[in-house]
Amino acid sequence: MSYEIKGLNEECGIFGVFGVPEASKLTYFGLHSLQHRGQEGAGIVSSDGEKLYQYRNRGLLAEVFADENDLNRLTGTAAIGHVRYGTSGNNSIANVQPFLFRFHDGDIALAHNGNLTNAQTLKCELEDKGAVFQSTSDTEILIHLIRQKKNLGFIDALKASLNEVKGGFAFLLLRKDCLVAALDPNGFRPMSIGQFDNGAYVVVSETCALDVVGAKFVRDVFPGELVIIDKNGLRIDHYTTDTKLAICSMEYIYFARPDSIIHGVTVHNARKKMGRLLAKEQPAPTADMVIGVPNSSLSAASGYAEEAGLPYEMGLIKNQYIARTFIQPTQELRERGVKMKLSAVRGVVEGKSVVVVDDSIVRGTTSKQLVQLLRDAGAKEVHMRIASPPLKFPCFYGIDMSTRAELMAANHSVADMCKIIGADTLGFLSIPSLITAISVPDAGNAPNGGLTVAYFDGKYPTPLYDYEEGYLKSLKQTQIQEG
Amino acid sequence: MSYEIKGLNEECGIFGVFGVPEASKLTYFGLHSLQHRGQEGAGIVSSDGEKLYQYRNRGLLAEVFADENDLNRLTGTAAIGHVRYGTSGNNSIANVQPFLFRFHDGDIALAHNGNLTNAQTLKCELEDKGAVFQSTSDTEILIHLIRQKKNLGFIDALKASLNEVKGGFAFLLLRKDCLVAALDPNGFRPMSIGQFDNGAYVVVSETCALDVVGAKFVRDVFPGELVIIDKNGLRIDHYTTDTKLAICSMEYIYFARPDSIIHGVTVHNARKKMGRLLAKEQPAPTADMVIGVPNSSLSAASGYAEEAGLPYEMGLIKNQYIARTFIQPTQELRERGVKMKLSAVRGVVEGKSVVVVDDSIVRGTTSKQLVQLLRDAGAKEVHMRIASPPLKFPCFYGIDMSTRAELMAANHSVADMCKIIGADTLGFLSIPSLITAISVPDAGNAPNGGLTVAYFDGKYPTPLYDYEEGYLKSLKQTQIQEG
Amino acid sequence: MSYEIKGLNEECGIFGVFGVPEASKLTYFGLHSLQHRGQEGAGIVSSDGEKLYQYRNRGLLAEVFADENDLNRLTGTAAIGHVRYGTSGNNSIANVQPFLFRFHDGDIALAHNGNLTNAQTLKCELEDKGAVFQSTSDTEILIHLIRQKKNLGFIDALKASLNEVKGGFAFLLLRKDCLVAALDPNGFRPMSIGQFDNGAYVVVSETCALDVVGAKFVRDVFPGELVIIDKNGLRIDHYTTDTKLAICSMEYIYFARPDSIIHGVTVHNARKKMGRLLAKEQPAPTADMVIGVPNSSLSAASGYAEEAGLPYEMGLIKNQYIARTFIQPTQELRERGVKMKLSAVRGVVEGKSVVVVDDSIVRGTTSKQLVQLLRDAGAKEVHMRIASPPLKFPCFYGIDMSTRAELMAANHSVADMCKIIGADTLGFLSIPSLITAISVPDAGNAPNGGLTVAYFDGKYPTPLYDYEEGYLKSLKQTQIQEG
Amino acid sequence: MSYEIKGLNEECGIFGVFGVPEASKLTYFGLHSLQHRGQEGAGIVSSDGEKLYQYRNRGLLAEVFADENDLNRLTGTAAIGHVRYGTSGNNSIANVQPFLFRFHDGDIALAHNGNLTNAQTLKCELEDKGAVFQSTSDTEILIHLIRQKKNLGFIDALKASLNEVKGGFAFLLLRKDCLVAALDPNGFRPMSIGQFDNGAYVVVSETCALDVVGAKFVRDVFPGELVIIDKNGLRIDHYTTDTKLAICSMEYIYFARPDSIIHGVTVHNARKKMGRLLAKEQPAPTADMVIGVPNSSLSAASGYAEEAGLPYEMGLIKNQYIARTFIQPTQELRERGVKMKLSAVRGVVEGKSVVVVDDSIVRGTTSKQLVQLLRDAGAKEVHMRIASPPLKFPCFYGIDMSTRAELMAANHSVADMCKIIGADTLGFLSIPSLITAISVPDAGNAPNGGLTVAYFDGKYPTPLYDYEEGYLKSLKQTQIQEG
């Protein structure tokens, strides 16, 4: 048995709507605002009350639906959609969601954001019972579990199945006559409910997708909940009450869009406060100005600048056009290629001592190049400030953060890191300040203020199942081989 | 005779290099940083000293060169490249540059940024002499002029031809053994020279393209100059000395990249100063914060905020993914569609009085939607501030700014405009402040500090030739019909 | 429950090889010679002894593998390939074969030529047990059956499964270390074994595929046989001995290539003999010449001419280029469009009395146009002769011959048909003469000389399972509704 | 100066119509029946009386117009179309016809079948006068010549220009209000006029295109004629009376479709008679049967069989599906690859002495493989008979027949050729018998019965201009270098 651990990770955005005209077009607009959550594939399944219709392909949403006819064919008043971040190697079209499964007793479509931690175990068990899988995605497992116990009826079979899968998950299921959403017992991934003026409901990964389609925010989906939407309206059910909020802090730190509101907290505001607390914890007394790494770190940088009483300047420019990465030039050209994403503004940084605020350091290669870029543009001093704690442990709940061996902070002290990246000084935000900056109002008495901070302290809020033995053990032995 | 005036307008970015290995790949990287100057088509012509090789197509650079082989086939140590902004209607592949003309006595490739104001007249004259044109682009005219007087020798024929064409132009010409650049007598369009460590030269539309390829800035190209680069190095020549700098102020206002330096002025710094002067001229006493329209107005907004002593906030988010515009939804969906580009951050603007800084108002439709977006997100007051004077007259020198009938400020007072877009107050920067903010050091005693500000005051620095009779006259009669 | 009967029909060509370098390229060449058996989709799965690799798509083989890299990536020394005839409506890429199923205990690829008559029943039973199907093809059923009884071991599970499926089938299965072929108990579809000089074996739908790859014919696969090829060579096994040869007569009549040899009979020779016997049974005393409908009826026409002592002429020309059928012109143009496939040679038929030999009449529309074409070209008399008996009943074993309601001979007498198509006379071959013309040496004492002639007499050699109730009953009531 | 001679050769089919609804669709159907004349590119230009519309691309007609919208956009009641045979190297889309040239005083479209023998000379002269060419095709020259003398008026300028170009040509020109056809003074290429029931006219390369669109044959176009079609109907004019019919005999031998009638002779009948005369001149006393190489040699083979009193058999099968040629297998596979086009029918030829009739031998490689194919299938004796004289000299009038160095018969005796290809005997038709077999009724007292037979005897009916010095001289020295 040799599943590749990495291949199972997926990050995604999901969108579902029930009871509106041209549901697939609305879904297209909604997915567009969730495109930052996944750029490798996109798809939509619609229902006209009788049949389900599917279109999906690899690529950006606008590439997938480059021919409008492919969208027009998805008729009906209900739809679910998906944008997918796929790690290389399992980038087959068979893995692009939503999945659509056809049965003689009624079709089911499925879209998923998250990562199951017992996927391998369940898959082997199912295959040993005769199951035939069509994708390498762990998402498909849910359908097999449901169908194994179809005699219970759909909703009860779904509830029982949700109690078998472990990890982080936000599922959307579409049948010809209903839309169902389900969130894992820790609420690792965000999911919110909105409503249109006509009363129809919509379920989305982030609230920014509500704004674009003109829906009003109703409430977040909570851990263990099942949201059932049909012609009778919306009903909240539970498949478990053994829940404890532990929302992924990386959503606030860099993954979600700044205008989204997750569990009552505007992401931009959380980031700005991370920047303020960072300025208190990690001042840079000699600095002339603060600059942010566009786009995800601009909020934190402006917070740092305000707190520090320093000017906030535009010292780095991001090229908004994406270059193909295939072009592998000679070594000489490759170093120039690095500059295709970011440019330093010489007229701003020349001769200055600058604080650069970034959201995180993963492998450290980008940070090193960033420092060099600023020095090449004439910066006198470069003080790197990171608006989150050092990343030392991987995420098993749905964000592809690479393995531990690749995480720079897992293997180096802050002092070493500073030296390697070539900065004058380097400082990180502390875990307590991170929790304070976010301050989830819904947290109740959940640990860490309702956040998962395991990426920083290694204390995962759940057992890790498949990863426990095969993976973490190998981490301890530091014998990781990667392709 | 019925050429469509609009169809001749083109905005572009050009890049040329001579004497480096893999010249076409370098050109690819350079064009990538100029992509903001044109997204409708791209192409490269290379020379290996014997033959010229061409590849071009419609679309973004990364789409055009999606198959790396198309780039690899462009062998050689010299190349010119082009990214093109094409108005609809003449978007044929035959109009995508660089053009490559094959002759029994040696091929010539040509790339152009600008607009000729006597193109129609010249084209008719040439056709009447037997010329056969292959594109509807005015760029092709230069080749016909050169070939008509080929007996003079290439450089002298080119010089004579450059004295026949009128308007704004920056030309790059590539032959098997030389690269030539030429700028119009007013220097309407920017063009700069860089140099590699190995001594090879590069000519670019904006200096941001020098940084990405690792070249050092040498000097700007000046009006009337001819830059000839061959195996003997670089030589500056002139085809005319009757010159007067009148660089397009729109390059500073919104078109160029903020990290580019044009005639000694960093674009970001100019914009920031426009924001500062705007804050002085058009204060907003009741405002709580300043926000900018991403991305082009962020520099000016931060300048405004600093001058006004107000917090600079991220109240608007730009979706970095481009949606296909073809999707024409129902009226209901269309208004939502507007929100696909920009989102207001409710958590920032709710209950606040905000100053929104934008770089310009063309038709006013975007401004109106912007104001509505902010009000929908809960903004208490919306004070629109524009970091340039009211746009009243079209550009005939290479920027496609629509016709005068479409320019909101050409037909409405500022008070009317404020009412139409729905803002609480509206204020523009004055022309003198614009000139002060930019302050071109190279200007000498040129009028308007070496800038073209005709878009604001209608005083064009040159005769308008083809546009004089047919076009401007019709403008005065306001009888414009457009398709 | 509402499966569409038509949608399950499939006609195909299959090719499998084990133990040669570049097995996928060999498979490509082999499939090319089987392209006449299916033009809607093509695919290849290869094995390098460790892993299986798949590529498939809709379209002709040369379109599917238009990029040679897609073929090169299919490394290894074993492969199976498939060309598919798909009826409209189920033309999804998910239905293009070979299918590749990945399991934690070893992958299985599958290619199929035929039609299962109990597919709906089996599929419902499997779904009720929890099976999740990924295609609408009945081929996938075999894998589910095998996996349900995987504890038996692969070969025994396969044998047991082959006893559960009914109808006409020729299966190829590829695992990392073996290639298996299986034929139904009546041998409805042809399948032959070949061998290379190096000893490696190949299994093909028709022997014409052996010639193109340079393999020598070994033997045909017989009903009920299982052919297992691995590193130990070839082994013939049986999953049942309750067999009776009833090979599809339509393979000889029009489907197979004339150079193929099926159960010892060269297809061209069988057709020529059909023509000779037709000339005896259905002479045309006033005729000046004999012409055939290209390409499938040329053999029979030359046989008719020889027997009748008439000149064999080229009176009809087939356009070898395929026109898109999408172009739906006005009524006036549509009738011209008919002529795009076939042209009459005026210089041959003008003023002459001609015998036209065709292989069969399905709906009669082509025959009618053919007669008109010849009359327009000046033919004096047109005597239509069909080298097979009247088609009255559909095929349920793998050839998509339309439903009975569409079969002209099912609803009209020969005299009526002659009148409708506008011929001077019309004559068909008798069933006994068809059997005599083919004379399968391997037939033993099987009924009808080892042939299925149910299309002509309605006496199917097996029960029809799913089709028995739902379909044939409806045929009797002549209440067929088709989309 | 170094034009490649080979690159100028082009073979094509042309179709023009004036005065019918949906002219472009009719042109599509007409071109489909001319597809055998060129498979490398296709295009159509239509006129709606005001504007001309163009679409063209590389590939087969059905590939070029795969999207029906591209055809629908070509509105209007007049159109010209072109299918193109392009030699490698100049296969740019810029060379695909019809060409469309836009002028301020009216557009002109142009389609050409033929080859100009003074193209290089004219092109250099024109370039020296300032002309800028957009293609490497010699066709474009005509437009430049016309425009140089545009003051004469269009028809007179065209007439004068037609007297300047030399070689073989059939031109179609479309303007917004007229369609003009012109044929060279020797009528090297066929061109015929047809008429619809509504009186509208059509001009085509071969009469088979009349049948498919439902037009009646009116007359052939004769050497030196100008056919002018406009709203006033059809008018025949002349640009020269110094004419002498010398139609290309290769059209009858292998190029034209068998159902076409050229100057009164049905191509199939001419070929059958070539076969009969070949049987008389080159009998094969020991033969058991006659087989033809499909498809072009089947007519001649049946003629040979009838004359010889031998059975005509189908011993070779042509695969009707075209394989991509890019797939370059190992040497072992390559020899199998040869068999992808043709297959021998073992059941027919095994143990037999066969006469194989082919239309011609160019390089001899195909003949060699053919003989081997038949021997591999068990043929006892192989007697190769060629239904035309030995090909020793290239065509300069429009058929790409390779250079003389590649023509097997230019460098070997018949006895040598027989040995090289491995046949038992080899025999060719004589030139007088070729002329007798065709017997053009329109020939009058023109030499060689109105045919060009220079490919066999080297006596070209015109001076060869560009080819005289540079090319034929080099042939005499047998110093040809090709790429």
TrEMBL record, chains A, B, C, D:
All residue ranges annotated as the Glutamine amidotransferase type-2 domain in the record: 12-232
Keyword tags: Glutamine amidotransferase, Glycosyltransferase, Magnesium, Metal-binding, Purine biosynthesis, Transferase
Single Gene Ontology BP annotation: purine nucleobase biosynthetic process
EC number: 2.4.2.14
Biological pathway: Purine metabolism; IMP biosynthesis via de novo pathway; N(1)-(5-phospho-D-ribosyl)glycinamide from 5-phospho-alpha-D-ribose 1-diphosphate: step 1/2
Keyword Protein biosynthesis: no
CDD domains: GPATase_N (cd00715), PRTases_typeI (cd06223)
Cofactor detail note: Binds 1 Mg(2+) ion per subunit.
Cofactor(s) the record lists: Mg(2+)
Residue runs in coiled coils: none
Catalytic activity: 5-phospho-beta-D-ribosylamine + L-glutamate + diphosphate = 5-phospho-alpha-D-ribose 1-diphosphate + L-glutamine + H2O
InterPro entries: GATase_2_dom, Ntn_hydrolases_N, PRTase-like, PRTase_dom, PurF, PurF_N
Active-site residue numbers: C12 (nucleophile)
Top-level taxon of the source organism: Bacteria
Binding site for Mg(2+): S296, D358, D359
The UniProt record lists the keyword Metal-binding: yes
GO molecular function: amidophosphoribosyltransferase activity; magnesium ion binding
Family: In the C-terminal section; belongs to the purine/pyrimidine phosphoribosyltransferase family.
NCBIfam families per the UniProt record, alphabetical: purF
Stated role: Catalyzes the formation of phosphoribosylamine from phosphoribosylpyrophosphate (PRPP) and glutamine.
Protein name as it appears in the record: Amidophosphoribosyltransferase
Species whose genome carries this gene: Ligilactobacillus ubinensis
Gene that encodes the chain: purF
